Amino acid sequence: MIDTKMYQLTKKQYMRIVWNTLRKNVLKLIPFVLIWGLLMSWRISYLLMVYIVFALFIISFILLFWFALKNLKPFFSETQLQFDEELIHLTKNGSTASWHFLRLKKVVEEEKYWLLYITSAKYIYVPKNIFLTEQDKATFKKLVNV
Question: At what angle do helices 11-39 and 42-69 cross, to 10 degrees?
């Protein structure tokens, strides 16, 4: 079993993660909206397309502020990560949850952290600076297939 340092997700980091995720998803919609606009005749749907893009940005900001104001204290508590060849163990507030590495849906790598998606909406935040040795970090990267 490999242990890591204790870590804690801050509200600022959480807001950055939410914003990056929303931004990437909105950017994926823009080509769809443009093609749809071209297929429906640019003149007729130009105004509608502008309203759709504007609405997506407004909804994104509303969601961002809602998440910021939502009570997420358990989400921001100190966390201990442990892993072995098969399982990843997450200990928070005295309780431990475990997941098989093979059951991870997706792994998103950013500059300072990884997001290990357990479902399409539920993820584990793992900072890159919590590993005690570079070998532990390399083993973790191998297990999550990064």
Answer: 170
Fold category of 2-8+73-143 in CATH: PH-domain like (2.30.29)
Token readout for 16 is 């950055």
Tens-place pLDDT, residues 84-131 = 888 999 998 888 999 988 888 999 898 999 999 988 878 888 999 999
Phi-psi region at 84: left, alpha or beta (left = phi > 0; alpha = psi -120 to 50): beta
Token pair, residue 57, equals 């940005």
Any idea where the domains of the chain sit in the sequence?
2-8+73-143, 11-69
Beta carbons of 126 and 5 less than 8 angstroms apart: no
